[in-house]
Write a structure and sequence with these properties.
Helix content is about 25%, strand content about 15%. The chain is an alpha+beta fold. It has one domain. The longest helix is centred in the last third of the chain and has 10 residues. The two termini are about 20 Å apart. Bound molecules: zinc ion.
């Protein structure tokens, strides 16, 4: 399981259900686009529950996030406000 926003990986879970129990978001929407998968830190920092009950990118971050695709490993965010929001939620990333 890898977070498409920050690229963090967890190997301790093998199924989506287990990941969700750990606080991961299995999919969310950025505008009309459905995107998988976000870690707990990114979920907390960047996502919110939308009107339909689906997870979506908070308005202030919509259109600003870069998403990793399968082939690439490093695509850190261009926008410092996104970086700061995630780091505040996961201080361990500073190491
Ligand atoms: Zn993340």
């Amino acid at each position: 399981m890898r977070c498409v926003i920050c690229g963090i990986r967890i190997s301790t879970v093998s199924t989506v259900d287990e990941a969700i129990e750990e606080g991961w978001t299995s999919y969310f929407y950025d505008g009309q686009t459905e995107i998988e998968v976000a870690c707990p830190a990114c979920t907390h920092a960047l996502l919110q529950e939308g009107e339909e009950g689906e997870m979506e990118v908070k308005k202030e971050f919509r259109g600003k996030l870069k998403y990793l695709d399968e082939g690439s490993d490093e695509a850190w965010q261009d926008h410092s406000e996104v970086v700061m929001a995630v780091l505040e939620n996961e201080p361990g990333k500073l190491n």
